[in-house]
Design goal:
Keywords: Coiled coil, Developmental protein, Differentiation, Flowering
Distance between the termini: 224 Å
Number of helices: 1
Radius of gyration: 78 Å
Protein name: Protein FLX-like 3
Helix content: over 70%
Shape: rod-shaped
Oligomer: single chain
Organism: Medicago truncatula (Barrel medic)
Order of helices and strands: H
Number of strands: 0
Strand content: under 5%
Largest sheet: none
Family: Belongs to the FLX family.
Structural class: mainly alpha
InterPro entries: FLX/FLX-like (IPR040353)
Length: 212
C-alpha cells in the first residue's frame, strides 16, 4: 500500500541489484540520475496510520477467523458427537427392531405349531359334540322311561296299599278252604262208616240166610 505514495518521477527499480528495470530504451545510454527528494512527514504519518489501521483490521479479521474456526471446530466436534450418539441409538433401535422381529417370528411359528397341534383336538371336539348329542337323545329317551317307571311305581305303590286287604281276603279263603276240606274229610269218613256198617250187616244177613 506504500507504493501508491511513491514519489512521482522515480523510475521503477528492478529486482536485480537495485538497477532500473529495462524498458524499450534500456540499452541506450543510462539516464542522468535525478536528485532524491524524501517524502513529506505528513505523508509518512498518513501512510503509517493507514498501515496500522490495516494491520488492526487484519488482526481483528484474524481473531474473528480464529474465533470462527474454534466455533466451527466446537460445532464440528458436537456434530460428530451427536452423530456418534445417533449412530449408537440407530444401532440400538436396529438391534431392538431385529429382536422384536425375531420375537414376532417365533410367536408366529409357535402359533402355527399350536394351530397344527389343535387339529386333533378339533376332531376330538367334533366327536365329543356328536357323543353329547347322542347322550342327549339317550337322556330324553331315559327321561321318558323314567316317567313311565314313575307311573309304574306309583301304580305298584297303590297296589301295595291293597295287598293287606288282599292278604286278609286270601287268608279268609284259605280258612274256608280248610273248613271245606275238613268237612269233606268228615263226610268221607262218615260215608266210610255207613258203608262199613252196611257191609257188616250184609255179612250177618248172609251168614244166617242159609240156615233158614
Amino acid at each position: 500500500m506504500g507504493s501508491r505514495h511513491r514519489v512521482h518521477g522515480e523510475p521503477p527499480m528492478s529486482s536485480r541489484r537495485g538497477y532500473p528495470s529495462e524498458g524499450p530504451y534500456a540499452r541506450g545510454p543510462p539516464p542522468m540520475p535525478r536528485q532524491h527528494i524524501p517524502p513529506h512527514p505528513a505523508l509518512l504519518e498518513e501512510e503509517l496510520e493507514v498501515q496500522h489501521a490495516e494491520m488492526r483490521r487484519l488482526v481483528a479479521d484474524n481473531r474473528r477467523l480464529i474465533d470462527d474456526r474454534m466455533t466451527l471446530q466446537r460445532d464440528l466436534a458436537a456434530a460428530k458427537e451427536e452423530l456418534h450418539r445417533m449412530n449408537l441409538a440407530i444401532g440400538d433401535i436396529r438391534a431392538e427392531h431385529e429382536m422384536h422381529s425375531r420375537e414376532l417370528v417365533d410367536k408366529n411359528m409357535k402359533l402355527e405349531s399350536d394351530l397344527r397341534s389343535t387339529e386333533p383336538l378339533k376332531n376330538e371336539v367334533i366327536q365329543l359334540r356328536a357323543e353329547v348329542q347322542k347322550l342327549s337323545s339317550i337322556k330324553q329317551e331315559l327321561s321318558g322311561k323314567v316317567q313311565t317307571l314313575t307311573k309304574d311305581v306309583a301304580r305298584l305303590q297303590s297296589d301295595d296299599q291293597q295287598i293287606p286287604s288282599m292278604r286278609s281276603e286270601i287268608d279268609g279263603l284259605h280258612q274256608e278252604l280248610m273248613r271245606a276240606r275238613t268237612m269233606v274229610d268228615y263226610e268221607k269218613k262218615a260215608n266210610m262208616g255207613v258203608h262199613g256198617t252196611e257191609a257188616v250187616n250184609g255179612e250177618k244177613h248172609g251168614f244166617h240166610g242159609p240156615r233158614s
